[in-house]
């Protein structure tokens, strides 16, 4: 069941692995290509003010994604985004890839209106209209696109959490609606001026990876879930055994203290033969179980027989004034 994961060293994050896999998924249908590109651009485009105007950018640390967007924009709209890469100090010399779609602002409004966007160059804002996706195949592609541009998954070793960040409530609600169409139950929260659509259950995250076609990540996640479940089971067993062991130790301690009390106050000879015999054995063998004690007797005695006699001894000690709590 445990597969040899194709783990790159060092593993940067589960999130990045998922995105790399998703960026390499080749969709064949033209309808899905459009939806995927729409999902990516609606979630990922930013408008930046620069001297003399604006730049419309898509930034990503994920090289396959920048290639993917480039190819889709060119293939579907014949548009050629400029691509540049910059080193960043975050994550030790990682590169950030920047696609420049500024050319769309003037005469490229076709693509933008096609994906439900318009640019207000006076206010420097992107306006989002609703984007309708009808076919199920396209919804999968759209959800994948949104995650690629603005999503993250926590490391499943630690917790189960998947989120996609949007600038407007309209976008978040639209994304959530498409997730619900696949039976998922996402929620939305507002954080630092952004709207987050998120999933919290391990099973829902598995379903999400399935819907969006990230099957390798899905297998990895399932393996981690199985390992986690096994670890929890082992821990439960160990805890249970520890609890039993400490109960045994407590009982043995109470018994030997009772016997010593009788020994000091009346002498073991004051006990009936059957009790004196087991008392002496217990003092000599404080660590053995009741069953083992029973086997040392001649003739042997059952565990419950031993228990019965030791309880009697404890009651005698108590009647003589022994207080096990003190
Ligand atoms: Zn489609």
Primary descriptors:
326 residues; alpha+beta; Endonuclease I-creI; 2 domains; 4-stranded antiparallel beta sheet; 10 strands; rod-shaped; disordered N terminus; binds zinc ion
Question: What is the secondary structure topology, with strand pairs?
Answer:
Blueprint: H1 14-23, H2 30-44, E1 46-50, E2 53-60, H3 63-77, E3 82-88, E4 94-100, H4 109-114, E5 117-120, E6 125-128, H5 136-150, E7 151-153, E8 162-166, H6 169-180, E9 187-191, E10 194-199, H7 202-211, H8 215-265, H9 273-284, H10 290-296, H11 303-319
Antiparallel strand pairs: 1-2, 2-4, 3-4, 5-6, 7-8, 8-10, 9-10
Helix pairs in contact: 1-3, 2-3, 2-5, 7-8, 8-9, 8-11, 9-11, 10-11
The protein binds zinc ion (ZN).
**Mean of pLDDT:** 88
Number of helices: 11
Number of strands: 10
Instruction: Spell out the helices and strands N to C.
Output: HHEEHEEHEEHEEHEEHHHHH
N-C termini distance: 54 Å
* CATH architecture identity of the largest domain: Roll
Structural class estimated from helices and strands: alpha+beta
Helical percent range? Answer: 40-55%
**CATH evolutionary superfamily of the largest domain:** Homing endonucleases
- The shape is rod-shaped
Give a written overview of the molecule.
This protein has 326 residues and is an alpha+beta fold. The chain folds into 2 domains: 14-213, Homing endonucleases (Endonuclease I-creI, Roll), CATH 3.10.28; 249-319. 52% of the residues lie in helices and 17% in strands. The protein is built from 11 helices and 10 strands. A hairpin with a 5-residue loop joins strand 3 and strand 4. Helix 2 (30-44) packs across helix 3, helix 2 runs parallel beside helix 5 and helix 10 (290-296) packs across helix 11 (303-319). Mean pLDDT is 88; it is low at 1-11. The protein binds zinc ion. The site of zinc ion has 6 residues, from helix 2 and helix 5. Residues 29, 31-32, 135, 137-138 line the site of zinc ion.
């Amino acid at each position: 069941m445990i597969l040899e994961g194709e783990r790159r060293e060092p593993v940067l994050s589960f999130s990045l692995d998922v995105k790399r896999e998703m960026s390499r998924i080749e969709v064949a249908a033209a309808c899905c290509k459009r939806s995927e590109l729409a999902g990516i651009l609606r979630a990922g485009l930013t408008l930046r003010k620069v001297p003399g105007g604006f730049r419309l950018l898509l930034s990503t640390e994920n090289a396959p994604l920048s290639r993917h967007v480039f190819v889709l924009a060119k293939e579907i709209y014949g548009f050629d985004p400029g691509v540049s890469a910059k080193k960043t100090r975050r994550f030790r010399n990682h590169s950030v890839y920047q696609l420049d779609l500024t050319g769309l602002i003037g005469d490229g409004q076709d693509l933008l209106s096609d994906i439900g966007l318009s640019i207000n160059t006076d206010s420097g804002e992107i306006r989002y209209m609703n984007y309708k996706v009808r076919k199920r195949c396209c919804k999968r592609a759209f959800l994948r696109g949104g995650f690629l541009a603005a999503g993250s998954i926590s490391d499943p070793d630690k917790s189960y959490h998947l989120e996609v960040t949007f600038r407007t409530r309209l976008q978040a609600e639209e994304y959530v609606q498409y997730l619900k169409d696949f039976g998922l139950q996402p929620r939305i929260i507002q954080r630092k001026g952004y709207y987050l659509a998120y999933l919290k259950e391990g099973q829902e995250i598995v379903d999400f990876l399935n819907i969006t076609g990230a099957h390798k990540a899905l297998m990895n996640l399932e393996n981690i879930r199985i390992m986690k479940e096994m670890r929890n089971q082992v821990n439960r067993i160990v805890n249970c055994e520890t609890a039993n062991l400490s109960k045994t130790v407590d009982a043995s301690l109470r018994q030997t203290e009772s016997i010593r009390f009788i020994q000091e106050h009346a002498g073991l000879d004051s006990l009936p033969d059957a009790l004196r015999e087991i008392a002496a054995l217990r003092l000599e063998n404080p660590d053995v179980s009741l069953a083992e004690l029973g086997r040392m007797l001649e003739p042997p005695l059952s565990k419950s027989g031993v228990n019965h006699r030791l309880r009697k001894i404890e009651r005698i000690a108590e009647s003589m004034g022994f207080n096990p709590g003190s």
